[in-house]
Amino acid sequence: MVEKAYRYRLYPTPEQESLLRRTLGCVRLVYNKALAARTEAWYKQKERVGYSQTSSMLTGWKKLDELDFLNEVSCVPLQQGLRHLQTAFTNFFGGQTKYPNFKKKRNGGSAEFTKSAFKFKEGKVYVAKCKEPLPIRWSRQLPKNCKPSTITVKLDPSGRWFVSLRVDDPTNHQLKPINKKVGIDLGITSLFTTSDGVKVSNPKHFDKLYKKLRLAQKSLNRKIKGSKNREKARVKVARISAKIADCRRDHTHKLTTQLIRENQTIVVEDLAVKNMVKNHKLARAISDANWGELIRQLTYKAEWYGRELIKIDRWFPSSKRCSNCGYITERMPLNIREWDCPKCDSHHDRDINASINILAAGLAVLVCGATVRAEQSKSVKPSAKKQKPK
Prior knowledge:
Helix 1 (14-45) crosses helix 3 (75-93), helix 2 runs antiparallel to helix 3 (75-93) and helix 6 (228-262) packs across helix 9 (291-305). The protein is 41% helix and 18% strand. The strands form four sheets. The chain has a five-stranded antiparallel sheet with strand order 2-6-7-1-5. Strands 10-9-8-11-12 form a five-stranded mixed sheet. It has a two-stranded antiparallel ribbon with strand order 3-4. The protein has helices at residues 14-45, 51-62, 75-93, 205-208, 210-222, 228-262, 273-276, 283-289, 291-305, 350-368, and strands at 2-10, 109-113, 118-121, 124-127, 136-137, 150-155, 161-169, 181-186, 190-194, 199-201, 265-269, 308-312, 338-340, 347-349. The longest helix has 35 residues, at 228-262. It folds into two domains: 2-169, no CATH class; 181-201 and 254-368, no CATH class. With 390 residues, the protein is α+β, with helices and mostly antiparallel strands. The model is unreliable at 374-386 (pLDDT under 50).
C-alpha cells in the first residue's frame, strides 16, 4: 500500500470562496501568533513552548472579543496549523531546515482538513461549515475503493485554488523487470546525458518568459504599496511565475516517467542543489534545470514501479576520469566539453564520459554496498570545498 496525494483544480462558488479565505486567514493568524509566542518565550524566559501549550493558547484566543471570528471557521485547520508549526520546529532543531518564518497573505495559504472536518460521499467532497460540495474539476479518478484520509485546500499567489486528497492506494503498479541500466549526468546545456549517448536538451522555461516577467516586475515596482493597482500587478507577476513552474513541473514528470519505464536501474549523482545555487552566476540556470525535483521524482517513482535508483557520492570524479582506462586528470574546467585522454588517447565527450563513469560507479555501489571514490581523487570534504555543476 502506497500513500499518494491527488491534486485537482478547485473552482469555489462566491460563498465557498469567502468561507475558505476566512479559514486561510484564521490559520495564518493562529500560526503567526503561536510562532511569535514561542519565539518570545525562548528569548525572554529561555523556555520552550510545545504544541500542547500553543493549543491551550488557541483556546484562550477564541474567548477574546477581538478574536471572536476564530469560532466562525472549523477548528480542525487551526489545530493542524499548530501541528505544522511543531513539525517546523522539530525539523529546525534537527538541523534540517532554517528557523520557521511568519506566513504572509500574498503567498496564498493552505488549510488541512482531517476526517472529522470533511465528508467524501458519492465522489463529492464536503468540508466543515459548508453545505454544498466543493466544485472540483476531476481531471483523473481516485483509485477504486479509496477514500481520502486528509484534504488540503490551497490558494496559490496567482489566485488559483487547488485541493489535494491524500489516499492509501493498494494498487500494484510494479512494472515488468527489464535488463537495462543507465547512468545519468545532469547538466545545464543538456538537461541530462545518459550512458547510452542520448542528450536531452534543456527547455529553459524561465528564459522563454523572462522578458515578460521582467516587464511585469518593473510595473509592480512602480506601483504604490497598498494600492489596488499594485495588487493587480502582483497577481500578474504571480501568474507568469506560476506558468513557468507548471511548464517545468510537467516537463520533469514526463522525463522521469519515461526514464522509469525504459530502465530497470538508474544511477545518478547525489547532488547538493541547495549548496550549488549559492553560486550567483549559475543559480538561475541550476534552478531552471530543476535537478532537485527530477531526482526527487525518480526516487519515489522507482519505489512505485519496482525500479532501482542508485545515488553515488557527489565527489566522485566522473568528468575527470577516463571511462576507457581510468586515468584521472588533475583539472577539468567547465568550458572544456571534449578532451583526449593523455594515457590511452581516447577522445571523450565530457557529458557522455561522465554518465558512463556514473553508471560504472553505481554498479560498483550496488555490488559493494558502499560509496565509491577513487583514491587518486583530490576531492576534499564537502564543508571545505564548493561543489560545481558538471
